[in-house]
Design a protein that fits this description.
The complex is a heteropentamer of chains A (about 625), B (about 110), C (about 170), D (about 500) and E (about 450).
Chain A (H helix, E strand, L loop, with lengths): L9 H15 L6 H26 L7 E11 L2 E9 L1 H24 L5 H23 L3 H19 L6 H32 L4 H8 L4 H18 L8 H4 L5 H10 L4 H8 L1 H5 L2 H22 L5 H21 L3 H28 L12 H4 L1 H15 L5 H16 L1 H26 L7 H6 L5 H16 L15 H6 L16 H26 L11 H7 L4 H50 L4 H22 L2
Antiparallel strand pairs in A: 1-2
Helix pairs in contact in A: 1-2, 1-4, 2-3, 2-4, 3-4, 3-10, 3-15, 3-21, 4-5, 5-6, 6-8, 8-11, 8-13, 10-15, 11-15, 13-14, 13-19, 14-15, 14-18, 14-19, 15-17, 15-18, 15-21, 17-19, 17-21, 18-19, 19-23
Chain B lengths: L2 H21 L3 H33 L7 H32 L13
Chain D lengths: L7 H16 L5 H29 L4 E6 L7 E6 L1 H20 L8 H20 L3 H22 L4 H29 L7 H5 L5 H18 L8 H8 L2 H26 L1 H28 L3 H21 L3 H32 L10 H4 L1 H14 L6 H16 L1 H25 L17 H18 L2 H19 L1
Antiparallel strand pairs in D: 1-2
Helix pairs in contact in D: 1-2, 1-4, 2-3, 2-4, 3-4, 3-10, 3-13, 3-19, 4-5, 4-10, 5-6, 5-10, 6-8, 6-9, 8-10, 8-11, 9-12, 10-12, 10-13, 10-19, 11-12, 11-17, 12-13, 12-16, 12-17, 13-15, 13-16, 13-18, 13-19, 15-17, 15-18, 16-17, 16-18
Classes of the chains: A mainly alpha (about 625), B mainly alpha (about 110), C mainly alpha (about 170), D mainly alpha (about 500), E mainly alpha (about 450).
């Protein structure tokens, strides 16, 4: 153990300290102090992460494990609490602390309207989230990961329900937590299975023994893990919480529900690439679920009017693409897209936040319009974000998405086609939003119009930084078709896949690849232009709703479906159990014993007639019975 | 005379006494039936006394076996006399209160 | 058939017949009288069994004293046959049936006893012999029975003594 | 150190007994409260000293035996080992905190109240410490009597009926246990009631079956396990809050404790025979209780059903016979006591201030009582076994054990993890969040001692959740006895 | 032996005491002195092994240590009974001294039964106990219920005496002796005559101890009799009946244990069930206690069933536990205005010490640990288990014990958890309070150290 890694524990520790100071001192600290502490710890953490990254990226670096203490060591269990520093975790570390710092800084301005107590609470939660997220990625075992895993769920719950007086928000928070828990159960079972199968739960231990167990076992374990990933990363069927989670403050959506937490599932699978590569069945499932989610979410996003909802569905859709990448074995591509997505999606969300901030919490894009003059910085950065997500070269999204699509093509043409379709829709709905919000004429109230103003520096600065990253972020993974060996990310991450046989080089010929790439970009441009045609008008009415449109607007009625097939039955069963089974039947039986005794008491009492004659008669009859008894039993 | 005859005779008397107790309502008559039962027992005891005495005499001519049964009968009579005293006193007391000795009226106590 | 046997059968028949009449007579006075007949018959049996002392005591104590007491009480209450209402038929039937079956069962279970009452003479039934035993071996129970009598006496006094506050209104205590 | 070092176990019984009896003679409510606190605190102190001593001398097991009823072979045998230490620690902490929390003017005739509470503590500690079956049985019953009186005198409207049902129900169970104890005593040739003597009996399988049944029913009623649980919601609802706290933090552990201390070592054949079917039954019970909890509108009933589910889980852990699950259950017994105590305390504070325990009538308390709501969130999170809270450690190990013995069962019981999140968050949402209800307007935030109590609880929750290792060291010797007969 | 003489003499003295003792208090005190004297003499006999007055009873009476301990327990119960309920005896009628005399005569009978070695003495003893009891049951002459109770008791009691005599006669016919040892010696084989005799004696003894199905007189008689004498009947007299039952079946019929134990088990079972279940229904505490006494008899029947060391030891403990507790409850009950459960409402507020004593008594009756009643029941159960094979009987017994909690606790609930609607005018003298507390302490002491009694035997 040497260099900065010795102090690696400080990376998660600093946000925790921030959480404690802000949480405990929320009644005493001024907003300025709170903001300073909240962002300060993040920046420090980021700085340490940079040093660590520096050390990790050095040539010939081997995975280092920072042992902290024994978490559970008894009865055959040996679960240490240790941090693992390797290429994958440090990459995530950078994304988390980096974007985290930006969003903290952004938040200092965005949340300024809150009272100082709530302001401090907000930062405390945010710091707590970062702490757990760091534990998640740094943990050296699945249990440590699970601690972070549930922890981020908790922080997400707290932040979604930040404005706790609003019951809709609370419901959204609850929904997020419960849905995550469903996934967590899967993850937990996977952990148990691994413990039972391998006897250890550290990554190193598990991966070492992974090859020795039957494929069916690995398939089972990975499938259960994927259920966990579904919950956290909002995949079919557990995706419905994410759009609702937009109830939280916008920076939260940017950090948690776009850039970091929701990518935990991708991290998990990328981390477990050894296991997943051993289970082709699971991989197929992952790919199919991924592409289906991507498509479904994209369709829904086409007809959403809430600026954050559009972004949310777009996130779900992009996450689907990442899973597609993981499913087809292109782990690097998945991680790459996580990174670029973090940049541009955070950018988009923060931009949306800026818009919302300017519009006084108006989120309906049909009530906006023509904002590009009023909000120049926001507009520009937002446009960059849109271009990035749409996959226009040379923006970041282009490279990562292209890599995914190429990998999908190699696996199965259907995946590829669906992936491309998703990309087209992405471009369309992103620009629909962009045009509706920033072009045309203002459709809000006059009062709103007068108040619209550019956000303060603390908000625009992160936007600018993220916009830059959205432009250059993709250049670390330039495909071989443009320049040999320019995929620095792939080279960097290769130790992580050392034991897995991942084919990073493409089998598709470069010419085909170039042709396909070109045509996809062309199609995307067409779809952007059609969006412009539809939505960049000066004056636009609400889209008329066809039946299909209505279906999309209502998100395929999936929420209602869940309500009908899951929530309602559970409530009914619960009420049936509580009212009928518990009170009437079980308790009724218990009370019935008492009643039976009372009843028999009343019956037996009748023999006590008060008549001497009958008493004597019963005595005599009993004696006769005694005699008979004696004769028959020969006593 | 076989002892069985005596046994059957006293069992007959005993059971007639029981039937009387069961079928009559007059407390005095019931009491009389109980006395009849006691007398049946007395008869049986005397018969047994005779039987044991004879059996013992066959072995030892000076044996006094069987005396105890007759003494027992004597004590039963004593007890019976005492019982009659108290029993009749109770019946008279009851009669003074309700002017009847019908046991079917005795049903204030149940539950 | 020796005379004792004839006497046995005659006395047995008398006893049983009289006993049945005791329980089936409507009039309590008749019952008392029939009971006296039973006692006499039983005394006869005692004589047959060489228990002369008990025979005499039986006649004096039972037929003489106790039965007179009964008769006295019945007279005091001025009872006659009409006063006793019939017990319910079922009750009667049940009483007879169960009493009868008890008898059957007792007889059935005792019929294997084959011991014979011997014919030899013995002096144990005589007053001299009984008296000696009573006052030597059985003096303790004899003394204790005095307590019995004492308590019966006290009891009879307690119950018989008229209390001042007793009057006809005590039905209210029901 | 002390010459009277061996008397630690006895002290733990005598202190509350003495305190309880003394308390009846203190007329002033405030004095009664402070004397109760002193006695409860000194119990805790004795326990801590003994733990310190045990750690220093490496003498984990502290066993003593006093002569009593030598004619019938019963000795007043007490033991302090890892298992009993943790349970006594829980008892001492719970009673101390309850005394601190409840204001002296809360209940009329306070001196009696505190007296009975201390007597209940004496009974509970006795149950945990006893190594002699007869003594165990005596304390088992004695713990019940003060609780019965406490609940019936100071409880809610339907208290008499509810507590009576509770009493009779548990009494029936315990008399069956008595029969089994006597049977085994008879098998020792009527010479000993000692646990070790019972342990050495070679009962045949069929004997063990019914002996196990008798013991298990007694314990199952106490825990309670589905379907013998219906006394619990009523009793919890109707008992005064401090009693409910004691009942659900400590008293229900008596059943689990009995399972560990008596059933597991004594009836290995029966346990092996029946554990699968019982596991299935409990698993159903867990899900069932969680579902019923979702429906509840009364905070107290909700917590009660949640407790049924959690206790069931611990019982499952024990009956899997897996070492990991058993030690998980051991630590979870302590943890659950702490967590549910926190929940009850919050329910108590809310009800004391608003007079309402119906969830639907509350709402928006967080605004008025932010500190309370923070602790509520912590308590609820501990209750749903979020990582880094104490329950996670226990339930993780228990589930791990269940999974090892049956995958499907673990998955099925795991549903309760989801449902527990549903009802717990519902409760938070409807009580603390949302728009301010009428009831919330009178609420004041907690302060002073109350905050101190919750800080203690939170610290316990977090410390055990993050670094449970000391507990596992404490349990290492207790596990041996529990599982010896299963390892071969 | 001493007890017979002293009680008889004291009975006679009591009869005349009315002439020279004027105040009821001094009569009461005089009776207590008599009991104390009896206890002292019995203790002397127990300690020295010799009575003060040695009389040759020709083997009719014999006092073993067991008998003496039994006698002491009964006498101490009677002492407690006198202390607690003496004033009620005074209140029953004008002839207080006569009633006391009868109680002393009953004690004579009890002393006779305690030492009986011959069926003759058993018969005499039981009759000496019964005949004064008929009178005591009817001693509230103006009360029709009391009259009725007396007549019922008398008729059925005589009837059962008849049954017993028939049984004795049949046994004599077979064995040729009334001595228990001789009967035991002659009981090697079961002849029909012995069987019939045994069954008849079993039936009549079951009647005396009020075991089902011969228990029907019990509720009616206990309910109708003056409460103070119900207390005496249901405790002390019942103990004696059980003692006689156990001794007879142990000494005389012990060899044939295998032949009759199933029947006794059935009787015990029926008694437990009927007693406990019917008691649940009762609204009057007095009648409830009557049924409870049947229920307790069911438990005591278990000792007759088992007749081993545990059974015999435990039965004495049971007598003590049961008598002390019942005497205590009855003493309070007899001071209440009526006998309904509601009359106990709020007793803990108005009279905390009385309520506490009653509470302890009731807990003891229910068999809650650390009261004497627990160990009493414990021994009964242990005896049955020791006997082996009849686990169902034990299980029924304990479940019945749980049912008994139901009706005993109703009184506790009334005392502690309910408030009296109107202020109950019942006054308790300090003397009575202290006596009650003493009684409760006795129960607790026996509950913690039952060996105080057990070590004596």
């Amino acid at each position: 153990m040497n260099g900065m890694i010795k102090f690696g524990y400080l990376i998660p520790m600093l946000p925790l300290v921030g959480f404690l100071i802000n949480g405990l001192g929320r009644n005493f600290l001024s907003k300025k102090m709170v903001g300073l502490i909240g962002s300060g710890v993040m920046v420090f953490s980021f700085a340490i992460s940079l040093f660590v990254f520096n050390q990790v990226s050095a040539e010939g670096f081997n995975t280092e494990i920072l042992f902290l203490f024994d978490f559970i060591k008894t009865a055959g269990l040996d679960i240490p609490f240790a941090l693992q520093f390797d290429q994958l975790s440090t990459l995530f570390l950078l994304v988390i602390t980096g974007i985290g710092s930006l969003i903290h800084i952004y938040s200092t301005a965005y949340m300024h309207e809150e009272s100082s107590t709530h302001y401090a609470r907000y930062f405390a939660y945010l710091n707590l989230f970062v702490f757990f997220m760091l534990i998640l990625v740094l943990g050296s075992s699945y249990v440590t990961m699970f601690i972070g895993w549930e922890g981020v769920g908790l922080s997400s719950y707290l932040l979604i329900g930040f404005w706790f007086t609003n019951n809709h928000y609370n419901n959204a928070a609850k929904k997020a937590f419960v849905m995550n828990r469903i996934g967590d159960l899967g993850f937990l079972l996977a952990i148990f299975w691994m413990l039972a199968q391998f006897g250890t739960i550290t990554y190193a231990g598990v991966f070492e023994k992974a090859g020795t167990v039957p494929v069916s076992v690995v398939t089972g374990i990975t499938l259960l893990m994927f259920i966990g990933a579904m919950g956290k990363s909002a995949q079919i069927p557990l995706y419905t919480w994410l759009p609702d989670a937009m109830a939280g403050p916008t920076p939260v959506s940017a950090l948690i529900h776009a850039a970091t937490m929701v990518t935990a599932g991708i991290y998990m699978i990328a981390r477990s690439n050894v296991l997943f590569s051993l289970a082709p069945v699971t991989q197929n499932v992952v790919a199919m679920i991924g592409v289906a989610t991507a498509l479904l979410a994209a369709t829904i996003a086409l007809r959403q009017n809430d600026i954050k909802k559009v972004l949310a569905y777009s996130t779900v859709s992009q996450l689907g693409l990442m899973f597609l990448a993981l499913g087809v074995g292109a782990y690097t591509a998945g991680v790459f897209h996580v990174m670029t997505h973090a940049f541009f999606k955070a950018l988009l969300f923060l931009g949306a936040g800026s818009v919302i901030h300017a519009m006084h919490h108006e989120q309906d894009i049909y009530k906006m319009g023509g904002l590009r003059k009023k909000l120049p910085v926001t507009h520009l950065t937002f446009l960059i974000g849109c271009l990035a997500i749409a996959g226009i070269p040379p923006f970041a999204g282009f490279f990562s998405k292209d890599e995914i699509l190429t990998a999908a093509l190699e696996k199965n043409i259907v995946f590829y086609v669906l992936g491309v379709l998703t990309s087209l829709m992405t471009a369309f709905y992103m620009f629909r939003m962009y045009f509706l919000a920033f072009h045309g004429s203002f459709r809000g109230t006059d009062e709103q119009y007068h108040h619209v103003h550019e956000s303060p520096v603390a908000m625009t600065m992160p936007l600018v930084i993220l916009a830059l990253l959205s432009i250059v972020g993709g250049w670390i993974g330039i495909p071989a078709v443009f320049a040999e060996n320019a995929h620095r990310l792939s080279n960097f991450l290769s130790p992580v896949y050392a034991t897995t046989h991942v084919q990073n080089e493409m089998h598709v010929s470069h010419t085909t690849e170039l042709a396909l790439m070109g045509s996809v970009v062309l199609l995307i441009l067409i779809s952007i232009f059609s969006a412009k045609q539809f939505f960049a008008k000066a004056d636009i009415a609400e889209e008329r709703s066809s039946a299909f449109g209505k279906l999309l607007e209502n998100k395929w009625y999936i929420d209602e479906l869940y309500d009908f097939i899951i929530v309602q039955p559970i409530n009914q069963i619960s009420s049936f159990f509580a009212r009928i089974i518990d009170i009437k039947i079980i308790d009724g039986m218990v009370n019935g014993v008492g009643k039976l005794i009372h009843f028999s008491a009343r019956q037996i009492r009748l023999i006590q007639s008060g008549q001497v004659g009958s008493y004597v008669l019963i005595m005599v009859v009993s004696i006769i019975l005694f005699f008979i008894f004696q004769m028959f039993w020969k006593i | 005379m076989p002892i069985n005859y005596y046994i059957f005779l006293s069992v007959c008397l005993f059971c007639i006494g029981i039937i009387g107790v069961l079928t009559r309502r007059n407390a005095i008559v019931i009491f009389m039936c109980i006395e009849l039962m006691l007398n049946a027992v007395n008869l049986l005891l005397v018969a047994f006394s005779r039987m044991h005495h004879a059996a013992a005499q066959a072995l030892d001519s000076s044996s006094l076996a069987g005396t105890e049964a007759q003494i027992f009968v004597f004590f039963i009579m004593v007890v019976a006399a005492a019982e009659v005293t108290v029993g009749l006193a109770i019946i008279v007391m009851l009669y003074r209160n309700i002017h009847s000795v019908d046991i079917n009226f005795l049903n204030r106590l149940k539950h | 058939m020796p005379i004792t046997e004839i006497l046995f059968w005659a006395l047995s028949a008398a006893a049983i017949l009289a006993a049945l009449l005791v329980i089936f007579s409507k009039n309590p006075v008749h019952s008392v009288l029939w009971l006296i007949v039973v006692f006499f018959a039983i005394s006869g049996h005692y004589v047959l069994l060489n228990a002369q002392f008990l025979a005499i005591v039986n006649m004096i104590v039972y037929a003489g004293a106790i039965m007179v007491l009964f008769l006295f009480v019945i007279m005091l209450m001025n009872m006659n046959a009409e006063q006793e209402p019939n017990k319910s038929k079922w009750m009667k039937l049940a009483g007879i049936i169960s009493g009868g079956s008890l008898m059957l069962i007792l007889v059935a279970s005792l019929k294997n006893s084959t011991a014979i009452a011997g014919g030899q003479d013995a002096g144990i039934g005589l007053i001299q012999q009984l008296g000696r035993t009573l006052f030597s071996d059985y003096v303790v129970p004899f003394e204790i029975s005095s307590i019995l009598f004492l308590s019966a006496m006290v009891g009879a006094i307690i119950l018989g003594k008229k209390e001042k506050n007793m009057n006809e209104t005590n039905f209210s205590k029901f | 150190m002390f010459a009277a070092i061996d008397n630690f176990p006895a002290l733990l019984i005598w202190i509350p007994l003495l305190g309880g009896l003394l308390s009846f003679f203190v007329k002033d409510a405030k004095q009664a409260k402070s004397s109760a606190i002193v006695f409860a605190a000194s119990s805790l102190l004795v326990l801590l000293v003994s733990m310190n001593y045990a750690g220093k001398e490496n003498l984990q097991v502290n066993q003593v035996s006093y002569e009593w009823l030598s004619a019938i072979g019963s000795n007043f045998g007490l033991i302090l080992d890892g298992l009993t230490r943790s349970m006594s620690l829980l008892t001492a902490i719970v009673f101390l905190l309850v005394f601190l929390l409840v204001p002296s003017d809360q209940y009329k005739a306070a001196h009696k109240f505190y007296g009975l509470m201390l007597l209940a503590q004496c009974g509970l500690v006795g149950v945990f410490l006893a190594t002699d079956a007869l003594v165990f049985y005596l304390f088992w019953e004695l713990a019940l009597i003060p609780v019965y009186f406490l609940a019936s005198i100071w409880g809610g409207e339907k208290r008499i009926k509810a507590t009576f049902k509770f009493f009779i129900y548990t009494f029936i169970g315990s008399v069956l246990m008595l029969v089994a104890i006597l049977y085994m005593y008879n098998k020792t040739n009527a010479t000993s009631f000692g646990l070790s003597a019972f342990f050495n009996l070679n009962n045949t399988a069929s004997e063990q079956y019914w002996l196990f049944g008798a013991f298990f029913i007694a314990f199952a009623i106490k825990m309670p396990l589905f379907p013998l649980h219906t006394w619990q919601p009523e009793a919890y609802e109707q008992s005064p809050a401090p009693v409910t706290m004691v009942l659900s933090s400590v008293m229900v552990k008596m059943g689990l404790f009995g399972l560990l201390r008596w059933i597991m070592p004594l009836f290995p054949l029966a346990v092996k025979e029946f554990n699968t079917s019982i596991l299935v039954l409990i698993a159903f019970g867990i899900v069932y209780a969680s579902l019923v909890a979702i429906y509840q509108d009364n905070i107290k009933r909700l917590i009660a059903y949640s407790s049924i589910a959690h206790i069931g889980l611990m019982a499952m852990g024990i009956l899997t016979l897996k070492e990991v699950a058993v030690s998980g259950a051991l630590i979870q017994m302590f943890n659950h006591g702490i967590n549910i105590l926190a929940l009850w305390m919050i329910a108590f504070i809310i009800e004391r201030q608003t007079g309402i325990s119906s969830i639907s009538k509350l709402g928006g308390l967080a605004k008025k009582a932010p500190v309370l709501s923070i602790f509520m969130v912590i308590a609820v999170l501990a209750n749903v076994a979020l990582p880094l809270t104490n329950s996670f450690v226990g339930e993780f190990m228990i589930f791990n054990g269940i999974y090892q013995s049956n995958k499907l069962l673990a998955a099925f019981a795991g549903l309760s993890i989801i449902f527990s999140a549903v009802y717990s968050l519902n409760m938070i949402k409807n009580v603390f969040y949302g728009t301010e209800s009428q009831a919330a307007s009178v609420v004041k935030d907690i302060r002073g001692v109350e905050i101190l109590i919750f800080i203690i609880l939170t610290v316990l929750i977090l410390i055990v959740g993050i670094y449970p290792q000391p507990f596992f060291q404490m349990f290492s010797d207790a596990l041996g006895l529990i599982l010896t007969k299963y390892n071969s | 032996m001493n007890a017979i003489i002293i009680s008889a003499v004291w009975g006679v003295l009591m009869m005349y005491a009315g002439f020279f003792l004027q105040s009821k208090r001094s009569i009461h005190l005089f009776a207590i002195v008599g009991i104390c004297l009896m206890i002292a003499c019995t203790a002397y006999e127990f300690l020295n092994g010799l009575p003060l007055f040695a009389i040759d009873t020709k083997g009719l009476l014999q006092y073993s240590n067991y008998a003496l301990v039994f006698l002491m327990i009964v006498l101490i119960s009677t002492l407690l009974y006198f202390i607690l309920s003496g004033s009620e005896i005074d209140a029953t009628g004008k002839s207080t001294t006569d009633l006391y005399a009868l109680v002393f005569f009953i004690l004579t009978g009890i002393a006779v039964v305690a030492g009986f070695r011959s069926l003759l003495m058993l018969f005499l003893g039981i009759e000496i106990v019964s005949i004064p009891l008929y009178v005591l049951a009817g001693s509230d002459k103006s009360n029709l219920k009391s009259n009725e109770a007396a007549l019922k008791y008398f008729l059925m009691g005589s009837f059962s005496s008849g049954l017993m005599l028939m049984g004795i006669a049949l046994i004599y016919g077979d064995v040729g002796s009334f001595y228990l040892d001789a009967i035991r010696a002659g009981f090697g084989m079961l002849t029909p005559m012995k069987g019939a005799g045994l069954l008849l004696i079993l039936a009549s003894m079951s009647f005396k101890v009020s075991a089902a199905p011969f228990h029907f007189w019990t509720p009616d008689v206990y309910d109708g009799s003056p409460t103070v004498f119900t207390s005496f009947m249901s405790t002390i007299v019942k103990s004696v009946a059980f003692y006689a039952f156990l001794t007879l079946f142990d000494h005389a019929f012990g060899k044939l244990h295998e032949h009759w134990k199933l029947l006794v088990a059935i009787i015990a079972l029926a008694t437990l069930l009927i007693g406990n279940i019917t008691a649940v229904f009762q609204q009057s505490v007095k009648r409830m206690l009557a049924y409870s006494s049947i229920a307790q008899a069911g438990f005591m029947m278990l000792s007759v069933f088992a007749i081993n060391t545990f059974a015999k030891q435990g039965l004495l403990l049971y007598f003590a536990a049961y008598s002390f507790a019942t005497v205590g409850v009855f003493a309070v009950l007899s001071k209440m205005k009526d006998h309904s459960i509601d009359s106990f409402n709020g007793l803990s507020k108005s009279n905390p010490f009385i309520a506490l004593s009653v509470l302890i008594s009731l807990l003891s009756l229910a068999g809650i640990p650390l009261t004497a009643g627990f160990f009493a029941k414990y021994y009964m159960l242990l005896a049955v288990i020791r006997e082996g094979g009849m686990v169902w009987l034990v299980v029924t017994a304990v479940i019945c014990a749980a049912v008994s909690v139901y009706y005993y606790f109703r009184v506790i609930q009334a005392m502690y958890f309910k408030d009296s609607a109107e202020a109950d005018g019942t006054e308790f003298s300090p003397y009575f309070k202290w006596a009650m507390v003493l009684n409760a302490i006795l129960i607790i002491v026996l509950g913690i150290h039952p060996d105080l009694i057990l070590n004596l035997i």
